């Protein structure tokens, strides 16, 4: 009789392991089928078979809606910008020759739909004039401040800037103290029903 060596023993073990795995898998599948049969029977006894059918109908409807939604998304997906359009909108070429960073006054532009929006705005408004004005204003202010030698001179530069009154365009610049003084109090208690007396008024009554 030939002695069973370690290698042959391991081969037998591998064969038995594979066969046992197949048997275990078949057994598990049988248990799963029995489980589903038992579930169906219990649902029927509890009168929930109709709900199960309705659930399947809803799942099918959801599946169809998802397919329709994917089709719509495919159709409305914006087209990418061409390299020329990206360069036109301030983009640059990277070291691989890819054009990136197209923008419209800081707003990223990534599709042909957005490119059309830019063209529409440009056809209706001339934004280059106010943009250049702000650029020149910014440079002028810093250049003048760089040249001043006293606090008073710096204050004069700021006063010139403040007189431009950007607040009327909705810019949130703080008001001057003279303007704050003329404004109404922060809280007006009269007419609110609250019984709060002003300290000065209370002293006058006494």
How would you characterize the overall build of this protein?
This protein has 206 residues and is mainly alpha-helical. The chain has three domains: 24-76; 83-124, no CATH class; 127-180. 64% of the residues lie in helices and 4% in strands. It has a two-stranded antiparallel sheet. Strands 3-4 form a two-stranded antiparallel sheet. A hairpin with a 5-residue loop joins strand 1 (92-93) and strand 2 (99-100). It starts with 5 loop residues before the first helix and ends with a helix. The mean pLDDT is 82.
Which terms would index this structure?
206 residues, mainly alpha, 3 domains, two-stranded antiparallel ribbon, 8 helices, 4 strands, 64% helix, 4% strand
Topology:
Elements: H1 6-45, H2 49-76, H3 83-88, E1 92-93, E2 99-100, E3 103-104, E4 107-108, H4 112-124, H5 128-147, H6 151-162, H7 177-181, H8 199-205
Antiparallel strand pairs: 1-2, 3-4
What is the residue-mean pLDDT, rounded to a whole number? 82
Indicate the proportion of strand residues.
Answer: under 5%
Multimeric status of the protein: single chain
The main sheet orders its strands as 1-2
Task: Please give the count of helices.
Answer: 8
SSE arrangement, N to C: HHHEEEEHHHHH
> How large is the radius of gyration?
39 Å
Q: State the separation between the terminal residues, measured CA to CA.
A: 126 Å
CA-based shape: elongated
Please, how many domains? 3
Level of helix content? 55-70%
Biggest sheet architecture: 2 strands, antiparallel
Poorly predicted tracts of residues: none
The total strand number stands at 4
Q: What structural category arises from helix and sheet content?
A: mainly alpha
